[in-house]
Amino acid sequence: MNDNQLLRYSRHILIDDIGIEGQQRLLAAHVLVIGAGGLGSPVAMYLGTAGVGKMTIVDDDTVELTNLQRQIAHSMASLGQAKVDSAAATVHAVNPEVRVVALRERADAARLDELVAQADLVVDCCDNFATRQAVNVACVRHARPLVSGAAIGFDGQVSVYVTDPRDHRTAGHPCYACIFPPDATFEEARCATMGVFAPLVGIIGSVQAAEALKLLAGVGSSLAGRLHMLDARRMEWTEMRLVCNPSCPVCASARR
To answer: Which of 28, 90, 86 has its CA nearest to residue 53?
Structure first.
């Protein structure tokens, strides 16, 4: 690291668990962020300020006035712009050293497979079940850690899914499909129809960013095998222990 980097990241470097080595891991990392909305905004901003070297952000939407209630990476000046371009500009304004690849597209399964393979870690900040399932499939195939979050109304949830058959430490850890089966039928809730408490996405997105940074820097223990659920009405967290499904259509074969 050069002198400017030592100064910029000094508050990380001063933490014994991170230090120079941990910060260098962040500088060398490549993170794929799916979604540049309510969750993707704090994720991209915190990963950027923390010095993640490369960030690929994928989203096909544009900034609308209704987004500004909670999507803090965007502003009035961003209205009509692609969310990925607006988020990239926000990250660059705070930390121009971070390389942001902005992809304005709705990635299908084949595209996600390609993008996940290029990244060290994936943060899923999307708002639909089908994309979450496709992201999970790609993460299992390429053994990439997946940090997943969701928020609607006053309720949020966050977890980490790590299923690397080459690493004994992930034995027993479920993938996303173990907990939320791909063939499940339910009515999908969206912010446009259900609403969302503005700070909720900031809370969940910040936890996602924290889990991603911990994994990349090799610090502490992650939420793998645990689902944290937040009731923001009472500001109460509930933890659920998760186990893998031996018949999971996504990860069962990868574990053999």
So the answer is: 28
Q: Are strands 121-124 and 99-103 parallel, antiparallel or unpaired?
A: unpaired
Kindly report the CATH class assigned to 3-255: alpha beta
**What would the DSSP string read from start to end of 118-174?**
H-SEEEE--S-HHHHHHHHHHHHHHT--EEEEEEEBTEEEEEEE---TT-GGGTT--
DSSP 3-state of 194: helix
- pTM for this entry: 0.94
Q: Compute the Cα dihedral for 112, 113, 117, 122 and give only its sign.
A: positive
Query: Measuring CA to CA, how many Å separate 112 from each of 103, 117, 155, 157, 163?
Result: 12, 8, 27, 23, 17
| pLDDT of 167 strictly over 70 | no
What is the token pair recorded at 195?
A: 């609403």
Residue 223's pLDDT is what?
A: 96
Is 191 designated active site? yes
* Both structure tokens of 86: 């607006």
Q: What is the mean pLDDT of the chain?
A: 93
Distance CA 202, CA 191 (A): 14
The per-residue pLDDT for range 183-232, each reduced to its tens digit, is 876 556 666 667 999 999 999 999 999 999 999 999 999 999 999 999 99
- Among residues 191, 244, 248, 251, which one is catalytic? 191
- Gap between the Cα atoms of 230 and 221, Å rounded: 20
pLDDT reading at 55 higher than 60: yes
Domain ranges in the chain are: 3-255
